[in-house]
Design brief:
With 383 residues, this protein is α/β, with parallel strands linked by helices. It contains 14 helices and 12 strands. The N and C termini lie far apart (50 Å).
Length: 383
Protein backbone atom coordinates (compact mmCIF):
# COMPACT_ATOMS: atom_id res chain seq x y z
CA UNK A 1 0.00 0.00 0.00
CA UNK A 2 1.27 3.48 -0.83
CA UNK A 3 2.08 5.67 2.15
CA UNK A 4 0.71 9.18 2.11
CA UNK A 5 2.08 12.09 4.12
CA UNK A 6 0.67 12.89 7.55
CA UNK A 7 -0.40 16.33 6.31
CA UNK A 8 -2.58 14.77 3.58
CA UNK A 9 -4.07 12.10 5.83
CA UNK A 10 -4.94 14.54 8.62
CA UNK A 11 -5.99 17.55 6.56
CA UNK A 12 -9.70 18.22 6.21
CA UNK A 13 -11.22 18.65 2.75
CA UNK A 14 -11.09 22.20 1.40
CA UNK A 15 -14.29 23.82 2.74
CA UNK A 16 -15.56 25.18 -0.57
CA UNK A 17 -15.13 21.74 -2.14
CA UNK A 18 -17.76 20.55 0.35
CA UNK A 19 -20.10 23.28 -0.84
CA UNK A 20 -19.55 22.29 -4.47
CA UNK A 21 -20.10 18.60 -3.66
CA UNK A 22 -23.46 19.36 -2.04
CA UNK A 23 -24.49 21.38 -5.07
CA UNK A 24 -23.46 18.59 -7.48
CA UNK A 25 -25.49 16.03 -5.51
CA UNK A 26 -28.72 17.96 -5.92
CA UNK A 27 -28.09 18.80 -9.56
CA UNK A 28 -27.78 15.03 -10.24
CA UNK A 29 -31.26 14.66 -8.75
CA UNK A 30 -32.61 17.13 -11.30
CA UNK A 31 -33.11 19.92 -8.77
CA UNK A 32 -32.32 23.49 -9.83
CA UNK A 33 -29.88 24.72 -7.22
CA UNK A 34 -29.43 28.40 -6.47
CA UNK A 35 -25.79 28.84 -5.55
CA UNK A 36 -25.10 31.51 -2.93
CA UNK A 37 -22.14 29.52 -1.65
CA UNK A 38 -18.87 29.85 -3.53
CA UNK A 39 -17.63 33.37 -4.23
CA UNK A 40 -17.77 33.41 -8.02
CA UNK A 41 -19.53 35.94 -10.20
CA UNK A 42 -22.07 35.91 -13.01
CA UNK A 43 -20.44 38.98 -14.56
CA UNK A 44 -18.18 38.69 -17.59
CA UNK A 45 -14.61 39.98 -17.65
CA UNK A 46 -14.03 43.28 -19.50
CA UNK A 47 -14.30 42.75 -23.27
CA UNK A 48 -11.05 44.61 -23.90
CA UNK A 49 -9.18 42.34 -21.49
CA UNK A 50 -10.50 39.26 -23.31
CA UNK A 51 -9.37 40.71 -26.64
CA UNK A 52 -5.92 41.43 -25.19
CA UNK A 53 -5.70 37.79 -24.10
CA UNK A 54 -6.73 36.51 -27.55
CA UNK A 55 -4.21 38.71 -29.34
CA UNK A 56 -1.36 37.66 -27.07
CA UNK A 57 -2.32 33.97 -27.29
CA UNK A 58 -2.09 34.07 -31.08
CA UNK A 59 1.57 35.06 -30.90
CA UNK A 60 3.79 31.92 -30.61
CA UNK A 61 6.46 33.89 -28.77
CA UNK A 62 4.13 33.86 -25.74
CA UNK A 63 3.82 30.07 -25.62
CA UNK A 64 6.93 29.47 -23.53
CA UNK A 65 8.25 29.72 -19.97
CA UNK A 66 8.24 33.22 -18.56
CA UNK A 67 9.40 35.28 -15.60
CA UNK A 68 8.55 33.90 -12.15
CA UNK A 69 7.71 37.39 -10.95
CA UNK A 70 5.63 38.25 -14.02
CA UNK A 71 6.41 40.15 -17.19
CA UNK A 72 7.68 43.72 -16.74
CA UNK A 73 4.63 45.15 -18.55
CA UNK A 74 2.28 43.48 -16.04
CA UNK A 75 4.24 44.64 -13.00
CA UNK A 76 4.38 48.17 -14.43
CA UNK A 77 0.60 48.14 -14.94
CA UNK A 78 0.16 47.01 -11.33
CA UNK A 79 2.40 49.87 -10.18
CA UNK A 80 0.29 52.36 -12.16
CA UNK A 81 -2.83 50.83 -10.60
CA UNK A 82 -1.50 51.14 -7.03
CA UNK A 83 -0.53 54.77 -7.55
CA UNK A 84 -3.86 55.65 -9.18
CA UNK A 85 -6.05 53.82 -6.65
CA UNK A 86 -4.05 54.31 -3.44
CA UNK A 87 -1.49 57.03 -4.10
CA UNK A 88 1.30 54.53 -3.43
CA UNK A 89 4.45 54.63 -5.57
CA UNK A 90 6.11 51.22 -5.94
CA UNK A 91 9.13 49.88 -7.80
CA UNK A 92 7.66 47.35 -10.30
CA UNK A 93 10.97 45.49 -10.39
CA UNK A 94 11.43 44.96 -6.65
CA UNK A 95 8.10 45.64 -4.95
CA UNK A 96 5.56 43.81 -7.16
CA UNK A 97 5.17 40.23 -8.36
CA UNK A 98 2.49 38.53 -10.46
CA UNK A 99 0.52 35.66 -8.92
CA UNK A 100 -1.52 32.74 -10.22
CA UNK A 101 -4.42 34.23 -8.26
CA UNK A 102 -3.97 35.49 -4.70
CA UNK A 103 -4.72 32.07 -3.23
CA UNK A 104 -1.34 30.87 -4.52
CA UNK A 105 0.46 33.79 -2.92
CA UNK A 106 -1.34 33.58 0.41
CA UNK A 107 -0.52 29.88 0.66
CA UNK A 108 3.12 30.19 -0.37
CA UNK A 109 4.09 33.31 1.55
CA UNK A 110 3.94 31.40 4.86
CA UNK A 111 7.05 29.49 3.80
CA UNK A 112 8.97 32.78 3.75
CA UNK A 113 8.47 33.15 7.52
CA UNK A 114 7.34 29.96 9.21
CA UNK A 115 9.65 27.26 10.53
CA UNK A 116 8.50 24.26 12.55
CA UNK A 117 6.82 25.46 15.74
CA UNK A 118 6.39 29.09 14.66
CA UNK A 119 3.18 31.08 15.07
CA UNK A 120 1.24 33.47 12.85
CA UNK A 121 -1.67 35.57 14.09
CA UNK A 122 -4.89 35.18 12.12
CA UNK A 123 -8.22 36.93 12.82
CA UNK A 124 -11.02 34.37 12.55
CA UNK A 125 -13.14 33.33 10.77
CA UNK A 126 -10.73 33.40 7.86
CA UNK A 127 -10.05 32.32 4.30
CA UNK A 128 -9.00 28.63 4.64
CA UNK A 129 -5.89 28.82 2.42
CA UNK A 130 -4.18 30.97 5.05
CA UNK A 131 -4.27 28.40 7.85
CA UNK A 132 -3.38 25.66 5.38
CA UNK A 133 -0.27 27.53 4.26
CA UNK A 134 0.87 28.11 7.85
CA UNK A 135 0.39 24.47 8.84
CA UNK A 136 2.04 23.14 5.68
CA UNK A 137 5.11 25.21 6.55
CA UNK A 138 5.19 23.55 9.99
CA UNK A 139 3.65 26.32 12.06
CA UNK A 140 0.31 27.05 13.67
CA UNK A 141 -2.22 29.84 13.48
CA UNK A 142 -3.16 31.72 16.64
CA UNK A 143 -6.73 32.83 16.01
CA UNK A 144 -8.06 36.07 17.42
CA UNK A 145 -11.82 36.52 17.07
CA UNK A 146 -13.49 39.13 14.90
CA UNK A 147 -16.64 40.24 16.75
CA UNK A 148 -19.65 42.15 15.51
CA UNK A 149 -19.40 44.61 18.41
CA UNK A 150 -16.04 45.77 16.97
CA UNK A 151 -17.28 45.87 13.39
CA UNK A 152 -15.42 42.58 12.90
CA UNK A 153 -12.04 44.18 13.56
CA UNK A 154 -9.90 42.12 15.96
CA UNK A 155 -8.99 43.56 19.34
CA UNK A 156 -5.19 43.54 19.20
CA UNK A 157 -4.95 44.31 22.92
CA UNK A 158 -6.44 40.89 23.70
CA UNK A 159 -3.52 39.00 22.13
CA UNK A 160 -1.36 37.53 24.94
CA UNK A 161 2.10 39.07 25.27
CA UNK A 162 3.88 35.73 24.75
CA UNK A 163 2.02 35.26 21.44
CA UNK A 164 2.87 38.79 20.32
CA UNK A 165 6.55 38.17 21.03
CA UNK A 166 6.62 34.80 19.26
CA UNK A 167 4.50 35.55 16.19
CA UNK A 168 6.31 35.94 12.88
CA UNK A 169 3.48 37.77 11.15
CA UNK A 170 -0.14 38.80 11.32
CA UNK A 171 -2.60 38.17 8.50
CA UNK A 172 -5.46 40.57 7.85
CA UNK A 173 -8.17 40.63 5.19
CA UNK A 174 -10.17 43.82 4.66
CA UNK A 175 -12.73 44.10 3.22
CA UNK A 176 -13.17 40.81 5.03
CA UNK A 177 -14.21 37.43 3.73
CA UNK A 178 -16.53 36.22 5.20
CA UNK A 179 -17.66 38.89 7.70
CA UNK A 180 -17.67 41.81 5.18
CA UNK A 181 -16.08 44.05 7.83
CA UNK A 182 -13.83 46.90 6.70
CA UNK A 183 -10.67 48.49 8.08
CA UNK A 184 -10.64 52.09 9.27
CA UNK A 185 -7.62 54.37 9.49
CA UNK A 186 -7.48 54.14 13.31
CA UNK A 187 -7.19 50.35 13.25
CA UNK A 188 -4.65 50.48 10.40
CA UNK A 189 -2.38 52.79 12.39
CA UNK A 190 -2.66 50.67 15.55
CA UNK A 191 -1.92 47.51 13.57
CA UNK A 192 1.20 48.98 12.02
CA UNK A 193 2.31 50.31 15.40
CA UNK A 194 1.98 46.82 16.94
CA UNK A 195 3.77 45.26 13.96
CA UNK A 196 6.70 47.63 14.40
CA UNK A 197 6.85 47.05 18.16
CA UNK A 198 6.85 43.24 17.91
CA UNK A 199 8.67 43.00 14.56
CA UNK A 200 5.80 41.29 12.72
CA UNK A 201 5.43 41.16 8.99
CA UNK A 202 1.91 42.07 7.91
CA UNK A 203 0.19 39.96 5.26
CA UNK A 204 -2.71 42.03 3.94
CA UNK A 205 -5.29 40.35 1.71
CA UNK A 206 -7.17 42.97 -0.33
CA UNK A 207 -8.98 40.67 -2.75
CA UNK A 208 -12.23 42.66 -2.33
CA UNK A 209 -10.71 46.15 -2.26
CA UNK A 210 -12.73 47.40 -5.23
CA UNK A 211 -16.07 45.85 -4.26
CA UNK A 212 -17.71 48.61 -2.24
CA UNK A 213 -20.67 50.98 -2.38
CA UNK A 214 -19.54 54.42 -1.26
CA UNK A 215 -16.14 54.75 0.43
CA UNK A 216 -13.00 53.28 -1.10
CA UNK A 217 -10.98 50.86 0.99
CA UNK A 218 -7.63 52.03 2.30
CA UNK A 219 -4.35 50.21 1.70
CA UNK A 220 -1.90 49.72 4.56
CA UNK A 221 0.81 50.75 2.13
CA UNK A 222 -0.60 54.29 2.28
CA UNK A 223 0.75 54.59 5.85
CA UNK A 224 4.28 55.86 6.63
CA UNK A 225 6.70 53.01 7.35
CA UNK A 226 4.42 50.28 5.98
CA UNK A 227 6.66 49.52 3.01
CA UNK A 228 9.26 48.05 5.40
CA UNK A 229 7.07 45.13 6.59
CA UNK A 230 3.78 44.94 4.68
CA UNK A 231 2.97 42.75 1.69
CA UNK A 232 -0.45 43.20 0.11
CA UNK A 233 -2.32 40.78 -2.14
CA UNK A 234 -4.60 42.12 -4.88
CA UNK A 235 -6.95 39.94 -6.91
CA UNK A 236 -8.18 40.69 -10.41
CA UNK A 237 -10.68 37.86 -9.90
CA UNK A 238 -13.04 39.98 -7.82
CA UNK A 239 -12.06 43.36 -9.24
CA UNK A 240 -12.59 42.52 -12.91
CA UNK A 241 -14.65 39.29 -12.71
CA UNK A 242 -11.64 37.26 -13.88
CA UNK A 243 -11.90 34.34 -11.44
CA UNK A 244 -11.09 31.70 -14.06
CA UNK A 245 -8.11 33.64 -15.41
CA UNK A 246 -6.17 33.07 -12.15
CA UNK A 247 -4.36 36.38 -12.05
CA UNK A 248 -3.39 38.73 -9.23
CA UNK A 249 -0.35 40.42 -7.78
CA UNK A 250 1.47 41.03 -4.51
CA UNK A 251 2.91 44.44 -3.67
CA UNK A 252 4.95 45.84 -0.82
CA UNK A 253 8.19 45.24 1.07
CA UNK A 254 10.98 44.39 -1.38
CA UNK A 255 12.47 41.75 0.93
CA UNK A 256 9.18 39.88 1.29
CA UNK A 257 8.48 40.11 -2.45
CA UNK A 258 11.94 38.70 -3.15
CA UNK A 259 11.35 35.80 -0.76
CA UNK A 260 7.98 35.03 -2.34
CA UNK A 261 9.47 35.05 -5.84
CA UNK A 262 12.22 32.69 -4.62
CA UNK A 263 9.56 30.29 -3.31
CA UNK A 264 7.61 30.52 -6.57
CA UNK A 265 10.75 29.75 -8.57
CA UNK A 266 11.43 26.61 -6.53
CA UNK A 267 7.89 25.31 -6.06
CA UNK A 268 5.73 26.85 -8.74
CA UNK A 269 5.59 28.84 -11.91
CA UNK A 270 4.16 32.05 -13.29
CA UNK A 271 1.04 33.17 -15.10
CA UNK A 272 0.55 32.46 -18.82
CA UNK A 273 1.68 35.62 -20.66
CA UNK A 274 -1.67 36.24 -22.43
CA UNK A 275 -3.42 36.18 -19.06
CA UNK A 276 -0.98 38.82 -17.83
CA UNK A 277 -1.78 40.83 -20.96
CA UNK A 278 -5.48 40.66 -20.05
CA UNK A 279 -4.77 41.72 -16.47
CA UNK A 280 -2.56 44.63 -17.51
CA UNK A 281 -5.20 45.85 -19.96
CA UNK A 282 -7.88 45.75 -17.27
CA UNK A 283 -5.82 47.68 -14.72
CA UNK A 284 -4.86 50.36 -17.23
CA UNK A 285 -8.13 50.79 -19.13
CA UNK A 286 -11.20 49.53 -17.27
CA UNK A 287 -12.16 52.01 -14.56
CA UNK A 288 -15.62 52.37 -16.17
CA UNK A 289 -16.07 48.62 -15.70
CA UNK A 290 -15.63 49.09 -11.94
CA UNK A 291 -18.45 51.64 -11.81
CA UNK A 292 -20.85 49.24 -13.52
CA UNK A 293 -19.67 46.30 -11.39
CA UNK A 294 -20.30 48.21 -8.16
CA UNK A 295 -23.76 49.29 -9.34
CA UNK A 296 -24.70 45.69 -10.15
CA UNK A 297 -23.52 44.41 -6.79
CA UNK A 298 -25.19 47.27 -4.92
CA UNK A 299 -28.57 46.30 -6.39
CA UNK A 300 -28.02 42.61 -5.62
CA UNK A 301 -26.80 43.41 -2.10
CA UNK A 302 -29.92 45.48 -1.42
CA UNK A 303 -32.16 42.71 -2.79
CA UNK A 304 -30.58 39.95 -0.69
CA UNK A 305 -30.68 42.03 2.49
CA UNK A 306 -34.35 42.71 1.83
CA UNK A 307 -35.06 38.98 1.44
CA UNK A 308 -33.29 38.24 4.73
CA UNK A 309 -35.12 41.04 6.55
CA UNK A 310 -38.52 39.76 5.37
CA UNK A 311 -37.63 36.34 6.78
CA UNK A 312 -36.36 37.59 10.13
CA UNK A 313 -32.70 36.83 9.39
CA UNK A 314 -30.28 39.25 11.07
CA UNK A 315 -27.16 40.30 9.17
CA UNK A 316 -24.14 42.56 9.46
CA UNK A 317 -24.89 45.70 7.47
CA UNK A 318 -21.88 46.28 5.24
CA UNK A 319 -21.39 47.83 1.82
CA UNK A 320 -18.25 45.89 0.91
CA UNK A 321 -17.52 42.51 -0.74
CA UNK A 322 -20.19 40.54 -2.60
CA UNK A 323 -21.33 38.62 0.48
CA UNK A 324 -23.84 39.07 3.26
CA UNK A 325 -22.71 37.69 6.64
CA UNK A 326 -25.85 36.67 8.50
CA UNK A 327 -26.87 35.02 11.76
CA UNK A 328 -28.10 31.45 11.83
CA UNK A 329 -31.63 31.20 13.31
CA UNK A 330 -31.78 30.17 16.96
CA UNK A 331 -31.61 26.46 17.73
CA UNK A 332 -29.53 25.46 14.72
CA UNK A 333 -25.83 25.09 14.05
CA UNK A 334 -24.49 26.68 10.88
CA UNK A 335 -24.13 23.22 9.27
CA UNK A 336 -27.70 22.29 10.21
CA UNK A 337 -29.00 25.52 8.74
CA UNK A 338 -26.99 24.98 5.53
CA UNK A 339 -28.50 21.50 5.23
CA UNK A 340 -32.00 22.95 5.74
CA UNK A 341 -31.41 25.59 3.06
CA UNK A 342 -30.40 23.04 0.43
CA UNK A 343 -33.00 20.42 1.36
CA UNK A 344 -35.99 22.71 1.82
CA UNK A 345 -35.15 25.70 -0.39
CA UNK A 346 -32.73 24.27 -2.98
CA UNK A 347 -30.14 26.90 -2.13
CA UNK A 348 -26.45 26.55 -1.25
CA UNK A 349 -24.98 28.83 1.41
CA UNK A 350 -21.66 28.61 3.24
CA UNK A 351 -21.95 27.65 6.93
CA UNK A 352 -19.71 29.85 9.04
CA UNK A 353 -18.15 26.87 10.80
CA UNK A 354 -16.43 25.86 7.54
CA UNK A 355 -14.42 29.08 7.86
CA UNK A 356 -13.25 28.40 11.40
CA UNK A 357 -14.67 27.96 14.90
CA UNK A 358 -15.21 31.70 15.17
CA UNK A 359 -17.71 31.47 12.31
CA UNK A 360 -20.17 29.23 14.15
CA UNK A 361 -23.58 30.83 14.48
CA UNK A 362 -23.22 32.65 11.17
CA UNK A 363 -23.49 31.87 7.48
CA UNK A 364 -22.22 33.53 4.32
CA UNK A 365 -24.39 34.19 1.27
CA UNK A 366 -22.87 35.37 -2.02
CA UNK A 367 -24.95 37.72 -4.17
CA UNK A 368 -22.61 37.80 -7.18
CA UNK A 369 -25.05 35.49 -8.97
CA UNK A 370 -27.64 36.58 -11.53
CA UNK A 371 -30.26 38.94 -10.14
CA UNK A 372 -33.03 36.63 -11.36
CA UNK A 373 -31.60 33.84 -9.18
CA UNK A 374 -31.87 36.10 -6.13
CA UNK A 375 -35.47 36.92 -7.05
CA UNK A 376 -36.22 33.18 -7.33
CA UNK A 377 -34.49 32.58 -4.01
CA UNK A 378 -36.71 35.24 -2.44
CA UNK A 379 -39.74 33.37 -3.72
CA UNK A 380 -38.50 30.05 -2.31
CA UNK A 381 -37.41 31.20 1.15
CA UNK A 382 -40.02 30.95 3.86
CA UNK A 383 -38.68 30.76 7.41
Amino acid sequence: MVRFSKSIIESAPYPFKKVNDIKAEYIKKGIKVIDLGVGDTSLSAPAGAVEALKKAAENPVNHHYNFYNGYPFFREAAAVWMERRHGVKLDPEKEITALIGTKEGLFRVSSAFIDTGDIAIVPGPAYPAVQSGIETAGGSAYFIPQRIENGFLPDLSKIPENIKNKAKYIYINYPNNPTTGTMNAEFAKELLSQAQKYDWAVISDMAYSEVYEDSRNISLLELPGAIERVIEFHSLSKTFSMTGFRIGFAAGAAGIISALVKIKAIRGSSVFQPVQAAGAYAMLNCDDYLVNMRYYYKNNRTLLKSIFSKNGIEYFDSGSTFYVWAKVPDGLTSMEFAALMIEKHGTVITPGSLLGNEGEGWFRACFACKTEDLIEFGGRLRL
